[in-house]
Amino acid sequence: MVDIAVSPPAGFPDHPHRGIYIIIPLIDFFLHFHQSHDFMLCLIGFETVTYMLQGAFTHQDFMGHKGTIRTGDVQWMTAGRGIIHSEMPAGEGAQRGLQLWINLSAKDKMIEPRYQELVSEDIPKAEKDGVEVKIIAGESMGVYSPVYTQTPTMYLDFTLKPNAQHHQSIPESWNAFVYIIEGEGVFGLQKSAPIKAHHVLVLGPGEGLSVWNKSSNPLRFILAGGQPLNEPVVQHGPFVMNTQAEIDKTIEDYYYSKNGFEMARH
């Protein structure tokens, strides 16, 4: 996952993707560019989950889909067999958000691309005893997200008031991590040292996550997790497949605008 902050005229112009749906740890990115760029990114074989924390991003792809997500909104994009798109800041100043890449299983890597978009007001929320959570994917406090995930996945945005505590169940076989957006918290064991903002905690096996906010300020963090695919992963830039031969074929498909990239020539 990437924590991004971009100021115009910078951004992520047209780029390709194919094949993703694994959970990759989140990075906090806060970028200010002072020159424009003109390219599109191609993605293949995975999904990207973009969650805006501040400002707005406009997305456009080679199939004609275009839209803008703003503070608190989510775009869940399945690249599948391939998509070429751009992501550009839609306002003045820094635009800040999180982006998670999720790997697709071998059987799903060549599915058709699709989007699921939720504005902030439509993301389910729950609150209890000083703990508030936005359920982007999965379940918390008995509340479920409407987002469909190819692989069982959770993506939860927690805010704990001072002196609040919470335990979130996580299936024991899942991989999961925490990314702290602001504040500091105690995770795992009550006597553990507090962890500050912009750190990632990769969780070990267990029945879930316990967290305490012992500070005088709010604690906000992302908890993301998913069922492991237990498949080989070969990555080449924005192409994520299972074998080197599949990567070589993907590069050929992109270069010759075929097998999902027919629109790339336009």
Can I get a quick summary?
Belongs to the pirin family. The chain has 266 residues and is mainly β. It has one helix at 244-256, and strands spanning 2-7, 12-19, 27-28, 31-32, 41-54, 56-61, 66-70, 74-78, 83-89, 95-103, 114-118, 125-128, 131-137, 139-140, 143-144, 153-160, 165-169, 175-182, 184-187, 195-196, 200-202, 208-212, 219-226, 234-236, 239-241.
What keyword list fits this structure?
single chain; 266 residues; mainly beta; eleven-stranded mixed β-sheet; six-stranded antiparallel β-sheet; 1 helix; 25 strands; globular; RmlC_Cupin_sf; Pirin; Pirin-like protein; Pirin_N_dom
Report on this model:
The chain is mainly beta and 266 residues long. The protein is 5% helix and 50% strand. It contains one helix and 25 strands. It has one helix at residues 244-256; strands spanning 2-7, 12-19, 27-28, 31-32, 41-54, 56-61, 66-70, 74-78, 83-89, 95-103, 114-118, 125-128, 131-137, 139-140, 143-144, 153-160, 165-169, 175-182, 184-187, 195-196, 200-202, 208-212, 219-226, 234-236, 239-241. Strands 1, 2, 3, 4, 5, 6, 7, 8, 9, 10 and 11 form an eleven-stranded mixed β-sheet that branches. Strands 12-13-16-23-18-21 form a six-stranded antiparallel β-sheet, with no helix packed on it. Strand 6 and strand 7 (66-70) form a beta hairpin.
Rg on CA atoms, Å: 19 Å
- Roughly how many Å apart are the termini? 31 Å
- Uncertain stretches: 20-39
* Overall spatial form: globular
| SSE class | mainly beta
Detail the topology: elements first, then pairings.
Blueprint: E1 2-7, E2 12-19, E3 27-28, E4 31-32, E5 41-54, E6 56-61, E7 66-70, E8 74-78, E9 83-89, E10 95-103, E11 114-118, E12 125-128, E13 131-137, E14 139-140, E15 143-144, E16 153-160, E17 165-169, E18 175-182, E19 184-187, E20 195-196, E21 200-202, E22 208-212, E23 219-226, E24 234-236, E25 239-241, H1 244-256
Parallel strand pairs: 1-3, 1-4, 2-5
Antiparallel strand pairs: 1-10, 2-9, 5-8, 5-9, 5-10, 6-7, 6-9, 8-11, 12-13, 13-16, 14-15, 16-23, 17-22, 18-21, 18-23, 19-20, 19-22, 24-25
Domain Pirin C-terminal: 155-259
Organism: Olea europaea subsp. europaea
Protein name: Pirin-like protein
